[in-house]
């Protein structure tokens, strides 16, 4: 049985959109032409891939089984063409955790990767959250992503730790601890942790609060960093956490105080589908490792620093200073 990748692509786009019109528009063909491609594919396979009723279309059981292998077939076909023609599309990369400004780190890595390759290392995609990014990776919509990774991750994904960034406490000038030169995390127990969304969806803040006994929490909408910090300053009991290198806006009365004994570290990782063969992915991973070495981004001392447990480097013994290896860790 010989599959026509044009028909497979029509099926995948229709399965993603569950709307033949939008899928046809994405392929720049008529809806009638797309329907014919899907019908030919169903005839070849001897099974209906969609259930069509008065409410629209949905995947049949056969369609659900076919979708994953169909995506992999398209990825393999694209890799085969690139291997012969040398034609390359940009590496498609997404970021998440926008309040913590992930592009600060990616910009430095991009400069290094561009210098090596002589071309832009990637094209930036939409901003989304970790669940959306993992789905996009598995569907082949993007090639890689950058942000804070935490379990559980779906099977088929790999990630490399890129940066461990110290975290500061941010609070308003009216907070009783605002004038301290440094703070231990336990000193924040009397305050209110201000979160840009539901805390159970913000893994780092959630684990920090649980580990250091922060009982009082308040949640607001993520309407951008300026709004988030202005709302924080308005209440003298509130505090939050920000990576130390994030450039803070000029919010009147805002204070940023280093956290010590231990210093919380925010873990940034590169994430990709294990079977992705885009040649730019290896270059980007190499640039991540080189920048991490030269900038000493992966230094970690368990006697001095704190990481949420899922991010503790494998084999690190308590009380021993460790520099995380540049290989994958998960």
Characterize the structure shown.
The structure is a single chain. With 330 residues, the chain is an alpha/beta fold. It has nine helices and 14 strands. The strands form three sheets. Strands 3, 4, 5, 6, 7, 8, 9, 10, 11 and 13 form a ten-stranded mixed sheet that branches. A two-stranded antiparallel sheet has the order 1-2. Strands 12-14 form a two-stranded antiparallel ribbon. Strand 7, helix 7 and strand 8 form a beta-alpha-beta unit. Helix 1 crosses helix 2. The radius of gyration is 24 Å and the shape is elongated. The two termini are 39 Å apart.
Helix and strand topology:
Elements: H1 5-17, H2 20-27, H3 31-45, E1 50-53, E2 56-59, H4 61-85, E3 92-95, H5 103-117, E4 123-127, H6 130-138, E5 144-147, E6 157-172, E7 192-195, H7 203-212, E8 216-219, H8 225-233, E9 238-243, E10 254-258, E11 263-273, H9 279-295, E12 299-300, E13 305-306, E14 322-323
Parallel strand pairs: 3-4, 3-5, 7-8, 7-9, 11-13
Antiparallel strand pairs: 1-2, 5-11, 6-9, 6-10, 6-11, 12-14
Order of helices and strands, N to C?
Answer: HHHEEHEHEHEEEHEHEEEHEEE
Counted beta strands: 14
Rounded average pLDDT: 84
Q: Summarize the amount of helix as a percent range.
A: 25-40%
Shape by Cα distribution: elongated
Question: Major beta sheet, specifics?
Answer: 10 strands, mixed
**Poorly predicted ranges:** 312-330
Termini distance?
39 Å
Radius of gyration, CA atoms, in whole angstroms: 24 Å
Number of helices: 9
**Beta strand %:** 15-25%
Structural class: alpha/beta
């Amino acid at each position: 049985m010989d599959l026509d990748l044009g028909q497979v692509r029509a099926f995948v786009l229709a399965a993603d959109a569950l709307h033949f019109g939008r899928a046809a528009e994405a392929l720049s063909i008529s809806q009638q032409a797309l329907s014919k491609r899907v019908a030919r594919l169903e005839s070849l396979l001897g099974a209906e891939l969609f259930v069509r009723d008065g409410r629209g279309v949905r995947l049949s059981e056969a369609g659900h089984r076919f979708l994953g292998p169909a995506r992999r077939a398209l990825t393999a076909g694209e890799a085969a063409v690139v291997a012969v023609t040398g034609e390359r599309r940009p590496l498609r990369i997404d970021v998440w955790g926008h309040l913590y400004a992930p592009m600060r780190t990616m910009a430095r890595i991009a400069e290094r990767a561009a210098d090596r390759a002589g071309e832009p290392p990637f094209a930036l995609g939409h901003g989304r959250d970790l669940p959306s990014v993992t789905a996009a990776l598995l569907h082949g919509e993007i090639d890689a992503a950058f942000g804070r990774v935490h379990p559980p991750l779906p099977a088929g994904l790999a990630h490399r730790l890129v940066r461990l960034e110290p975290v500061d406490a941010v609070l308003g000038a009216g907070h009783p601890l605002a004038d301290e030169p440094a703070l231990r995390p336990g000193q924040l127990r009397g305050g209110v942790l201000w979160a840009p969304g539901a805390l159970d969806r913000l893994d780092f803040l959630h684990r920090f609060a649980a580990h250091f006994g922060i009982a009082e929490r308040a949640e607001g909408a993520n309407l951008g960093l300026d709004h988030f910090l202005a709302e924080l300053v308005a209440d003298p009991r509130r505090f939050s956490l920000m990576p130390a290198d994030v450039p803070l806006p000029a919010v009147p009365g805002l204070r940023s105080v280093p956290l010590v004994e231990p210093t919380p570290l925010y873990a940034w990782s590169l994430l990709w589908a294990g079977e992705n063969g885009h040649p730019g992915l290896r270059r980007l991973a190499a640039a991540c490792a080189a920048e991490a070495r030269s900038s000493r981004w992966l230094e970690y001392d368990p006697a001095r620093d704190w990481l949420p447990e899922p991010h503790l480097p494998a084999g690190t013994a308590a009380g021993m200073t460790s520099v995380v290896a540049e290989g994958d860790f998960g």
